[in-house]
Write a structure and sequence with these properties.
Layout lengths: L2 H18 L6 H12 L4 H8 L5 H40 L18 H15 L3 E2 L5 E3 H4 L19 E3 L2 E3 L5 H9 L4 E10 L10 E11 L4 H15 L6 E8 L2 E10 L16 E10 L1 H7 L7 E8 H9 L6 H4 L2 H4 L6
Helix pairs in contact: 1-4, 2-4, 5-10, 7-9
Bound molecules: phenylalanine.
Phenylalanine (PHE) binds next to strand 9 and strand 10.
Amino acid sequence: MSHLSKIEEIRTKAFSEIESLGSYPELQEIEVIRVRYLGRKSELTEILRSIPSLPQDERAPVGKMGNLVRKQIEDHLNAIIEKAKKLEQDQKLHQEKIDITVPGKRIEEGGLHPTTLTAQRMIEIFTKMGFDIEYGPEVETDYYNFEALNVPKHHPSRDMQDTFYMSDDTVLRTHTSPVQIRTMEKMKPPVRILSPGFVYRHDQDISHSPMFFQIEGLYVDKNVSCAQLKGVLTEFFKNFFSEETRLRFRPSFFPFTEPSAEVDISCVVCKQKGCRLCKNTGWLEVLGCGMVHRNVFKAVGYDPKKYTGFAFGVGIERLAMLKYGISDMRLLFENDLRFLKQFRTL
Ligand code: PHE
């Protein structure tokens, strides 16, 4: 067979093989054909390589025809490769298509609990005045919860706070005041601490919960005065509620302070015009406080002649209720999302 008809045959075979790939060839299949017809060991390459050894008059036509067919096969394959690549890309795009009109999935945003928000604000104000944070255990010994705070066994004042007993001498702390003792035991004056934490009392109605959150304050140094107690608390409430908030100190009794007082603030709802919340008195009771009792100093080894101090204990839920206008304390413990969501952006 002459070289020319051989080349013609190669072209026919190559083209029909390319046709047989069908409309959706894979790139790999195309590569196989390319190697078979145009590769280094292909018949066509062999023929082109043998040209120098051909008779003079055959060289030009064989070379011309060989190169032409080579180019034709190459073009044909390239066109098909292009098509296959485009197809592959289209498929990918189709599979990965993103419908930007589909509504997004809403991520529910969390928020802090109103009691936490209140505690944070309180801590913020007191720490600006120089108080440091201290923590104490919720399961407390009788000694720290009562004894060292000048509440002897069988003293009637123990009845002021209905206690959950864990055993004869361990209790769920009824107040944060034991942290006063724990702190003074481990450091010398000046002591200026704030102690937030949960406390427990056997008591439950719309304004009492068996577990609630208190913040204890304690300041002990030389020459700490009643006037300073009044100043610090006044400053606190003006910052916490508003500048027009007024304070009233009512004589009271706590075994661990002498003198003791209960603090009322001017009603945040009616501004002292009289309303249901303040029972028309214009005043709301918010905390207990006083000057640290000398027996408390003795219990921790401080010299009562050298040091004086003040302490206060304030219920956080109560302030949260006043601040946000919450009428039932139980809402703060039920964790009903319809209620809690209202504080999300605060
Ligand atoms: N511990 C008292 C209570 O829980 C509050 C208080 C603290 C009073 C510090 C005086 C001094 O009721």
